[in-house]
Amino acid sequence: MTMAEKPMLLDVNGLSVSFATDRGFVRAVRDVSFSVREGEILSIVGESGSGKSVTLLSLLGLHDAKTTRVDGTVSFRGQRILELPASRMRRIRGKDIGLISQDPMTALTPVYTIGWQIAEQIRAHEAISARAARLRAIELLGEVGLSNPGEAVDRYPHQLSGGMRQRAVIAMALSCNPALLVADEPTTALDVTVQAQVLDLLLRLRKDFGSAIILITHDMGVVSEVADQVAVMYAGRIVERGPTEAVFANPLHPYTWGLMGSIPPLTGPRLARLRSIPGMPPTPDRIDDGCGFAPRCRFARPDCARHPPLHRLGSQSALCVLDPAERVALRENELTLETEA
Ligand SMILES: Nc1ncnc2c1ncn2[C@@H]1O[C@H](COP(=O)(O)OP(=O)(O)OP(=O)(O)O)[C@@H](O)[C@H]1O
Ligand SMILES: [Mg+2]
After folding, report:
1. Which CATH architecture is the domain 12-96+178-340 placed in?
2. Nearest by Cα to 266 from 292, 248, 287
3. Ligand 1 atom with minimal separation from the 49 CA
4. Nearest in space to 318 (alpha carbons), one of 247, 258, 212, 261
5. Ligand 1 contact via 171 beta carbon (within 6 Å)
6. Closest ligand to 184 CA?
7. Atom 14 in ligand 1: which residue has the minimum CA distance?
């Protein structure tokens, strides 16, 4: 079965998120849509503050309902999950959707040992004894690469190093073989060899259990290696998305060109981390109808201040006023200039 024939797992449509602040409602995410099929890996990339974590946390119902306004729909296996009661949502989150959050401490409770926390997570969804759950926890801690899992299982989070804590959180997210794993920069806190191990582990989860993965990362090399689809976020919007191969071979949005640099990615050497682009990303209260990237875009024109149209090229799409033919010509010119420089 090709990826396009796999059943749809998660469908996010028109997700917008704003926060109540002293300055009134501040919008952090605007009109974000994407979908993930069973077993598919979607990578979300974009600068710090572009709204990646807010997107993932709010679609999982992990936002503070008192101060956050979430619009749009999120369907998981055809069920609208944002409308579910909190208890049903919690159940889905622990059993069907695993989360590796950006900050491991938010996933761990300081007052219990990590083994206890992993075992509880397993027992919340599976009828097994405390003893069996503890053994599973030890096994999982071994699988995520903790060198002495039988000892680590009885440690409290503060007794572990940052990297060990991150692995404990990954073990917890994997404990129920989730159909969807949501991983927000799961390897940033880890050193390079451990990063590679963790990625292998995620890929194994897909291979053994057919899990789909949403992976936020700053590492374009990782994206090109593991992702089937990529979504590029800028200033609270997805400015481009599509199959990884297509987006790397022919990025449509000028922001994506900037990210990709001029290295031919799928065939060339491994890309460095996100390239920096001159200028500052906007603050969320300035997400209006126009293209957020326009102030930093060399190709900006007056039309960019209006709502930029969504152009499609096969299954790839970009929010930009440049029409596809013009965009290809401009980008080629850009690459030539970079090669000459
Ligand atoms: N609770 C909140 N109240 C007000 N603003 C918020 C809140 N949470 C996030 N924001 C703002 O929303 C924007 C998007 O934040 P988010 O954490 O999603 O960025 P990110 O893309 O994950 O960045 P990074 O790569 O640094 O993790 C930021 O400007 C952030 O300051
Ligand atoms: Mg983040």
Report:
1. 3-Layer(aba) Sandwich (3.40)
2. 248
3. 19
4. 247
5. no
6. 2
7. 51
